[in-house]
Design goal:
With about 160 residues, this protein is α/β, with parallel strands linked by helices. The protein is built from 4 helices and 12 strands.
C-alpha cells in the first residue's frame, strides 16, 4: 500500500502547509510546472518524488525530469504528463499513444483546474490536482491524496490549502 500526494503547478512555491501533507505521504508525484527545482529538492528531503516538467519549466527541470513518466506503482499502470487534456479532449500530441496503450491512471496538470474523471471509453481514471502554487488564475490552491493498494486506487481526497 502506498499513500500518494499528487500536486502540480507549484510555479516555484513550496510552503509549510504543503510540506505538512508531504510528510503524511509515502510518495509525492508532481505533474509539472515545478518552477525552481528548489521545490522538488525540498520535497525530496522529505519523501521520494516523481515529476515531469511543464511548459514553464527551464532547462534544468527538463534535464532532471521527463516530459512523460510512465511507471507501475504496485499493480497500477500510471502515466504522468503536464499537458494531457482530459477524457474526450486529450492533447493531440499524446492521444494516439493513449488510445493504443492506456494506463489505469492518467495524470496531468497545466489547467490549474482540479478534475477527477473516469474515462469509460479507455477504462482509465484521469486526475488533475489543480494548482498548489500561488501563481495563476485559480482562486484556491489544491492537491489530491489517494492510496494505491495492489490494483486499487482508493481513498481519494481533495485537499484545499487556502487561497492563493
Amino acid at each position: 500500500m502506498k499513500k500518494i500526494l499528487l500536486l502540480s503547478d507549484t510555479h516555484s512555491h513550496i510552503d509549510d502547509v504543503i510540506l505538512k501533507y508531504i510528510d503524511q505521504a509515502d510518495e509525492v508525484w508532481h505533474a509539472g510546472d515545478i518552477g525552481n527545482l528548489m521545490v522538488t529538492d525540498a520535497i525530496a528531503k522529505h519523501k521520494p518524488v516523481r515529476a515531469v516538467y511543464g511548459n514553464i519549466d527551464d532547462a534544468n527541470a527538463r534535464l532532471t525530469f521527463p516530459l512523460h513518466n510512465r511507471f507501475l506503482r504496485e499493480e497500477v499502470s500510471v502515466w504522468i504528463t503536464h499537458i494531457g487534456g482530459y477524457p474526450g479532449k486529450y492533447n493531440s500530441t499524446i492521444k494516439e499513444e493513449l488510445l493504443k496503450n492506456p494506463p489505469q491512471l492518467f495524470i496531468c496538470g497545466h489547467s490549474h483546474i482540479l478534475k477527477v474523471q473516469f474515462d469509460k471509453k479507455l477504462n482509465l481514471l484521469h486526475m488533475n490536482p489543480g494548482a498548489a502554487g500561488i501563481s495563476g488564475f485559480h482562486q484556491v490552491r489544491t492537491m489530491l491524496r489517494f492510496v494505491i493498494e495492489g490494483k486499487q486506487i482508493k481513498d481519494l481526497e481533495i485537499i484545499e490549502i487556502g487561497k492563493r
